[in-house]
Amino acid sequence: MGAEAPDPGDGSRLGSPGLSSVQRAPEPGGPDPSLAAMAVGGLVVALEANFCRVALESAGPGGVDQLLCVRRTRLGKTGQQICVGDRVTVEGVDWTSRRGAVAAVAPRSSLLARPAVANCNRVVVVMALVQPDLDPIQLTRFLLTAEATGVQVDLVLTKADLLTPQRLEEWRQRLATWGYGPWLVSAQTGAGIEPLRQHLAEPGIAVLCGPSGVGKSSLLNALVPDLALRVGAVSGRLQRGRHTTRHVELFAIGAGGLLADTPGFNRPDLPPDPGALAGLFPEVRGRLGAGGCRFTNCLHQGDPGCAVGSDWPRHLHYLQCLDQVLAQEAAAKSRPAEPGLKQRGGRSEPRLDPRLRQLSRKRRRQGDGPQGDDSSTDRDGEEGEDRDLDPGARG
Ligand SMILES: Nc1nc2c(ncn2[C@@H]2O[C@H](COP(=O)(O)OP(=O)(O)OP(=O)(O)O)[C@@H](O)[C@H]2O)c(=O)[nH]1
Ligand SMILES: [Mg+2]
Ligand SMILES: [Zn+2]
């Protein structure tokens, strides 16, 4: 099942197990109203539309270990986004309805932008060997975004049951020349699943990341018994997936290990810095660094004194990606922020004269004028304030 219903009480979902031991607060004759004012700590385990689900560090009255939360307005005003994997403080808890409001987000140790997951210490790039066919350029783009996070990168190749042992060995050898030792697995037959489970059960947050239809949810189902996540058949000439998973969600795997299922997407953005691109290819990382290329700003395109050279299998992939990163950079430079334009979601749009600004529906209901005091809508937990809660969860 996907994460459609905002149901904090769903027992199949991640609660305290894997987070911390459950400590039940005393419950003498029903909920204590003073507890509502108490701030509690937890981990965002799922984002669903305008809400997030927070697994609590310690269970509250009645053993409640998970809350459905909106975001405090003042957090929204700072532009602070909430991601799955964020450690948060929840206030205004109503233990009976299991609801609260996220008041603060702890500083992150890492952030994967897409899928949006904070504090992960492992990115697991998942690609199918077939159905859809493994595309080396697409795989390279996923690996680059994963490497750009600076955390450990694992590569899992699925649907191993559909290839001969000889073809599997060819892939293994090819990817070894890229600097990766891939996990070849089959969710269908269970081949390779147990060693991968042990590897991923180490404490921390790991994220499955890859195109739609490669078998990320199937893999999670194989790794975590009784999970029963929804999977969708691939279709069409290219055997593409159908974007079955819609939300990022964390699941417990082993004691302390958390693994995020994520919506698939086909074309990850490339990291923005052309100078840092080569360092994201493990097979040439060793050639960089002190005493490497003659010029410190070398982009390794056959420049004199270049230590990276062209004698490596993904050299052409590198040049192709570099071209795109340079084009991206040039396009960004030729687009200066003009006065009168504001940036909104990567686009520029005209800044409206406040007197011309249309009244929002909520303001109109309240009879508030266009130049009214913003604080008039500054009420915690208001639905309208939580619109942008889900920054990159959709594939
Ligand atoms: N033969 C075979 N088929 C598999 C395997 N793993 C997954 N599949 C099939 O691949 C299809 C897609 O699987 P999903 O698990 O939904 O893929 P996904 O990556 O989660 O896709 P999105 O949620 O759309 O991102 C389903 O028909 C699965 O049954 C495998 O190991 N072997
Ligand atoms: Mg899925
Ligand atoms: Zn160079």
Task: Characterise this structure.
The chain is α/β, with parallel strands linked by helices. It has eight helices and 15 strands. It folds into three domains: 1-107, OB fold (Dihydrolipoamide Acetyltransferase, E2P); 114-261, 3-Layer(aba) Sandwich (Rossmann fold); 274-333, no CATH class. β4 (87-94) and β5 form a beta hairpin. The radius of gyration is 24 Å and the shape is globular. Bound molecules: guanosine-5'-triphosphate, magnesium ion and zinc ion. The site of magnesium ion (MG) has 5 residues, from α5.
How is the topology of this model organized?
Elements: E1 40-48, E2 51-56, E3 66-71, H1 73-77, E4 87-94, E5 99-105, E6 111-112, E7 117-118, E8 122-128, H2 136-148, E9 152-158, H3 165-176, E10 183-184, H4 193-200, E11 204-209, H5 216-223, E12 249-252, E13 257-261, H6 282-285, H7 315-333, E14 341-344, E15 347-350, H8 361-366
Parallel strand pairs: 3-5, 8-9, 8-11, 9-10, 11-13
Antiparallel strand pairs: 1-2, 1-4, 2-3, 4-5, 6-7, 12-13, 14-15
Bound molecules: guanosine-5'-triphosphate, magnesium ion and zinc ion.
